[in-house]
Write a structure and sequence with these properties.
single chain; alpha+beta; 3-stranded antiparallel β-sheet; 3 helices; about 15% strand
């Protein structure tokens, strides 16, 4: 039986969901001397009545190092995600107030502006995802 990093599976699943697909055919492909056992993902696009092929997730050994820097690593309910979206909206309002406050030094203002950009991008990403579920 093959072993997979769950972060790799979550990452691929979220990639499919973020593309607007909510159903997928997941097949385990047997490995051999040349290729590892892997999971194949085909998303089902109901609008176009076709399947979209996604990159496979390869099996790993139990001692394989897992790096998660750029992977999806935690699932949230829709209610929790809405709370995060609301918190980001509040944070952006606070950043706007802080950025016009002359009592902050330039380094702090630079940090506020950088955080504001990250928050705005995340807020947009979450907002788009929530809208796609309605």
């Amino acid at each position: 039986m093959a072993v997979y990093h769950l972060f790799d599976i979550m990452d691929r699943t979220m990639e499919i969901i973020n593309d607007g697909m909510f159903f997928a055919n997941i097949t385990e492909l047997s490995g051999d001397d040349e290729f590892l056992t892997s999971l194949s993902f085909y998303a089902i696009n109901p609008d176009e009545e076709c399947e979209i092929d996604y990159e496979e997730v390869e099996s790993v050994t139990r001692d394989t190092c897992c790096t998660i820097e750029d992977k999806v690593c935690y699932g949230l309910t829709l209610e929790e995600l809405s709370t995060v979206h609301h918190a980001l909206t509040n944070a952006l309002e606070f950043f706007k107030i802080c950025s016009s406050d002359k009592s902050y030094d330039s380094e702090t203002l630079d940090d506020i502006n950088a955080s504001s950009i990250e928050c705005r991008n995340l807020q947009a990403k979450i907002g788009k995802f929530i809208s796609s579920l309605k």
